[in-house]
Amino acid sequence: MIIADDHKKSETINIVLHGSFLHSIHRINDIQRHKVFSKTAMRCVLSPQYWKGSDKTKQNLLHSLALRGYGLDNGAYIDYNKGTEFNGDLFKVMCKDLGNGSDWIAIPDVVGDSVATLKQARYWFNELEKLDLDTNLLIVWQDGMTRSDLLPYIKDGYGVFVGGTTEGKLSAIPMVSSLCLEYGVWCHVGRVNTMRRVQYCKAHKVKSVDGSGFSRFLCAHKQFVKYMKFKEEQISLFSQKTLDFTDLKTFEQRLKVFGIDKSVYEHILTTNTDYIGLGKNEYKQNSSYLRWDR
């Protein structure tokens, strides 16, 4: 399945890209998104608010998650923006159902409150450890957290999801990423929606990033596609040493976890999606990234 995730592409970019979740592999628009995202090995992020509905709805979403690869966010930021209370039970259900197929899980945090986030961290790590999941567990960094705050968790093998304010996270990335590299744990940065910020994260050897803008708007993802093409064509005698991406779950691993028959995906390659997603003011000659054969 050539549109499933390819670790070599992550090695080319030297970072793992994540976008918003995809609804289905059965609708033509979403098939096109899978095809475009596969060019940069983009994975997706799912929050518990979207893991609900009928069994059929969940199965369709599961097909997309298995194909692209994914991390699990706790959804606290969504509840914070909506002014609703965090639903820990809904989060636990998502982790129980999807945790073994995920690359990482961000444990619940208290948005904007580093003290409260640290206070409840051990509880959530213990709760998820009870599920015996084969994945990376991440504590969410909030403004004000220090190296000494993170170190006890990192020494225990837990990674870090860098949240917080934009100004706070940008200043914290060098410290957090170097600490994660030192102990060999995962470092992820949320809300990365510009190539400039992607490059900043890459420069500090962040393992993965997510940004909804690059997955919601295909024209925005074009920047990633152009960058990937540049990196694939670039020849250097002094190439930067890449991060280790062997701990990413593979398509085959996810199929096995969820018991999905690979034949479910056969129609994707033969579905003509050329130029679906082309904006009104765009020209086909400038949009080859929307052609699957290019």
What does this structure look like?
This protein has 294 residues and is α/β, with parallel strands linked by helices. Helices cover 46% and strands 11% of the residues. The protein has an eight-stranded parallel sheet. It is globular. The two termini are 17 Å apart. 38% of the residues are buried. The model has no long low-confidence stretch (mean pLDDT 92).
Give the SSE layout.
Blueprint: H1 7-13, E1 16-20, H2 28-38, E2 43-46, H3 55-68, E3 70-72, H4 76-82, H5 88-98, E4 104-106, H6 114-129, E5 136-141, H7 147-155, E6 159-162, H8 166-183, E7 187-189, H9 195-203, E8 208-210, H10 212-216, H11 218-233, H12 251-258, H13 266-270
Parallel strand pairs: 1-2, 1-8, 2-3, 4-5, 5-6, 6-7, 7-8
